[in-house]
Structure formats: structure tokens, C-alpha cells
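Supplementary Methods. Inverse-folding protocol.

Structures were first reduced to a C-alpha cell string of length 433. This string, shown here, constituted the complete conditioning input.
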């Protein structure tokens, strides 16, 4: 739970904030005095301090200075005041407060800040697991980097004294901190090479150079950010977090795009390939088979009496049967076999480098596995009829038509069986594409 200490003379205002924070499941304790507040800080885990300007035994300015001088100096402080003068704001910001909020806007802005802080804590947790590389030829600079990271509990960091050792590591990091002036390579060369190898990584250039042309050149080379030496540790970590946020956002976009791509090619119910993508894959496999003179067979499979299942047991039962059949098909395949829902209750399996007998054997294995489902699915007896065809000289449509004809023969011969047609049995010209 996120815990707030509120130091405020007005008991009525403390009560208002207490109610608002309780609604958000935020821990809240309050007092009107500096002495009591310091005691609470020593005894409780506080994540945020909110203080007024005037307190029972002193001022907010005095309280903030005491916090900064003690062991709780890293806890963020927000000042709330009815006096919204520029002079008071400047004074409070000069003491290191993270925000100054007019009393009329206090609740909304405080809740927004706390939500941002919670997100920042989640970012801190991810930062602890993030792989970081630091490249600097100065031992004292490397020691300074290490001191900052150690102070923030970040240990997944590798330190390099020259560009050769970093590039030879051939290891991808999420964040790179690269000194621009190096003895063996220029920083721009290192940045260019890293960006070429790992385009998704965040690169932060670090240097004491000040000229805008040099900094602009580094950024144009591929660096995501530039930090000037010497740097303040707090600002430095804020820039590191900004870099990590960009990296995680990029990864999230990448993940979402992959999900969308998967949705485009996948049947929503069975999670096998959909008709369009299945047909595209079949055309690709036929092209490869002809180019490398390899065998290729396909199976056309249809669930027997599926309309009766839907009519007698409902479409939800029918959907469960489709899913069960799809799972069974998937479990019977090799890793390079390809299965998809061709339409309705029909499925097609593409079997690269398989002749008619190998295709027939797989079709029988699938048919028997589906038959064994038996009463596991709503007490239904589920069977399939299958047709197998081996590639001759035809195109994708012609091969599917021959597999479909074999399946139709299986239906006519009593269902729950497999029929096949080898390449040598194919007679007639290709159908029109």
C-alpha cells in the first residue's frame, strides 16, 4: 500500500484528504506538528510527504529543511497552500519539493501525483531487472556510474573500458550509456554499430562536450538522448528512467502489433490458421516443393454429421467440438506441419516433404485420435472423414479439389474413414487459377 504523511494545522482539511485517500486504498496518517511528523517518519514507511506552509510548531520551510538534513531526504515532498504567490513557489522549489499545489486543486492533483508515483515505482522495479551497458575509458567515471546504480539498487550493469570489449561481447542490452570520446573508437562509431545490431535498444550518449554541433551529430548518428558530464545523480536517473520508458513502450507496441498480426492470420475460435492464410501457406509450400523437387501432401478433413450436432445440442456444443478437433489436430502434427480451418467444420493440414502414404498415416492418426474423444465432449460421439492428396503438377486450388474429392469418397463410403489419391493418380489439366 502507498503511504502518505500529511502535516497540516487544519483538522477539517486533514479529514477531507483522509476520506479521499481511503477511497483510493491509500494509507494515510496526519499531524499538525513538525515534532510528531518527524517521529512518524522514523517509525513508519512513508512514500510521500504533504505539508502546509504554516504548522503548529513552525513552518513548512523549517520542516522541509529538517527532512533534507535527516535520513528521509529522498522522500518526495509536496507543499499545499492557499497562498499561490510566485515568490512562495520559487522558495519551496528551491528547497527541493516535487510540487506546489494550490489548496483549491489539492485532491485531484495529489491523486494524479500518487498514481504517477505508483507507476514510477513499477518502473523502478523493471529498472532493477534491465540489462545496462556502460562504456567509458575513465576508471573514475565508471566508478561514478557504478556508485549511482548501486545507490539505486541497480545491479544488472556491465562496465566496459573500451569499445572493442563492448562490441566483442556480442550481448544485447536494453540501455547503453556511451562515452563519446574513446581511445579505440569514436563514440559515434560505437553508437552506429550498436544501433545496427540492436535497433530496439536505447542509447544514451555521455560527454563533457558542450558544442551544439557535436551533440547534434551524436543524436543524428542514432543516440536516443545526451547527458552532459558532470551530471546530477537525480537528473541522471530521471533520464535513465525516461529511456527505459521509451524502450518498454516500444516493446509494448511491438507486442501489440504481433498480436494484431496473429489475429489477422488466425481463426478466432480454433486458433488454427484462417482460410486466407492457410491458402497463402499452401501456395508457398507448393512453390518450395516444386523448386526443390520435394514431396507434398495435404489432408482435407470434415467433421461427420456436424449439422446434427448443432441442431441437437446447440451451437455452443458445436463450437466446443470444433475447438476439441482443432486441438487434437494440432497435437498430432510435427512442428513444420501446417493446419488451418478451411471453413465451417472443414480443416486442411499441409504436410511438407510427405508422400501419399505418409500423409495417409497422419490422417489416420488424427482420425483415430478424434474418434477416441468420445464422450469427453458433451457426451457426443465425434468422428471425421478425411481425404489425402499428393501434389502432382497442379496449383493450390487443384490440390485442394483432389483432397476434397477424396474426402467426399470417404463420406460416401460410410464416414469415419480416410481415402487418398496419389500424384500418379492425378489425371487432367490444372484448373484455372
Amino acid at each position: 500500500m502507498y503511504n502518505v504523511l500529511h502535516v497540516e494545522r487544519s483538522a477539517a482539511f486533514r479529514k477531507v484528504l483522509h476520506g479521499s485517500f481511503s477511497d483510493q486504498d491509500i494509507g494515510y496518517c496526519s499531524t499538525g506538528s513538525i515534532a510528531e511528523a518527524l517521529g512518524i517518519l522514523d517509525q513508519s514507511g512513508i512514500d510521500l510527504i504533504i505539508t502546509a506552509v504554516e504548522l503548529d510548531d513552525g513552518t513548512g520551510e523549517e520542516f522541509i529543511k529538517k527532512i533534507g538534513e535527516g535520513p528521509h531526504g529522498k522522500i518526495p515532498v509536496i507543499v499545499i497552500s492557499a497562498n499561490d504567490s510566485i515568490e512562495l513557489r520559487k522558495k519551496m522549489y528551491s528547497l527541493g519539493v516535487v510540487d506546489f499545489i494550490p489548496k483549491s486543486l489539492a485532491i485531484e492533483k495529489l491523486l494524479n501525483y500518487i498514481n504517477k508515483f505508483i507507476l514510477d515505482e513499477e518502473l523502478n522495479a523493471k529498472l532493477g531487472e534491465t540489462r545496462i551497458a556502460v562504456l567509458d575509458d575513465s576508471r573514475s567515471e565508471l566508478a561514478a556510474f557504478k556508485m549511482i546504480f548501486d545507490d539505486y539498487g541497480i545491479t544488472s550493469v556491465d562496465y566496459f573500458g573500451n569499445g572493442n570489449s563492448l562490441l566483442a561481447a556480442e550481448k544485447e542490452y536494453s540501455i547503453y550509456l556511451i562515452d563519446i570520446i574513446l581511445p579505440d573508437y569514436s563514440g559515434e562509431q560505437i553508437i552506429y554499430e550498436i544501433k545496427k545490431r540492436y535497433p530496439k535498444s536505447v542509447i544514451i550518449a555521455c560527454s563533457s562536450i558542450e558544442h551544439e554541433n557535436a551533440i547534434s551529430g551524436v543524436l543524428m548518428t542514432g543516440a536516443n538522448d545526451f547527458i552532459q558530464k558532470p551530471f546530477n545523480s537525480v537528473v541522471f536517473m530521471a533520464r535513465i528512467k525516461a529511456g527505459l520508458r521509451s524502450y518498454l513502450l516500444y516493446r509494448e507496441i511491438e507486442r501489440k502489433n504481433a498480436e494484431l498480426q496473429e489475429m489477422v492470420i488466425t481463426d478466432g475460435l480454433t486458433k488454427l490458421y484462417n482460410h486466407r492464410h492457410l491458402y497463402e501457406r499452401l501456395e508457398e509450400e507448393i512453390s518450395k516443393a516444386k523448386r526443390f523437387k520435394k514431396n507434398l501432401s495435404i489432408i482435407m478433413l470434415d467433421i461427420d454429421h456436424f449439422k446434427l450436432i448443432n441442431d441437437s445440442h446447440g451451437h455452443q456444443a458445436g463450437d466446443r467440438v470444433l475447438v476439441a478437433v482443432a486441438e487434437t489436430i494440432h497435437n498430432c502434427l510435427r512442428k513444420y506441419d501446417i493446419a488451418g480451418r478451411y471453413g465451417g467444420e472443414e480443416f486442411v493440414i499441409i504436410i511438407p516433404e510427405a508422400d501419399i502414404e505418409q500423409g495417409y498415416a497422419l490422417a489416420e492418426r488424427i482420425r483415430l485420435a478424434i474418434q477416441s474423444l468420445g464422450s469427453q465432449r458433451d457426451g457426443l460421439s465425434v468422428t471425421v472423414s478425411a481425404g489425402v492428396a499428393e501434389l502432382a503438377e497442379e496449383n493450390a486450388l487443384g490440390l485442394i479439389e483432389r483432397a476434397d474429392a477424396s474426402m467426399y469418397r470417404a463420406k460416401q463410403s460410410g464416414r469415419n474413414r480416410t481415402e487418398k489419391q496419389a500424384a500418379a493418380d492425378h489425371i487432367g489439366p490444372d484448373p484455372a487459377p
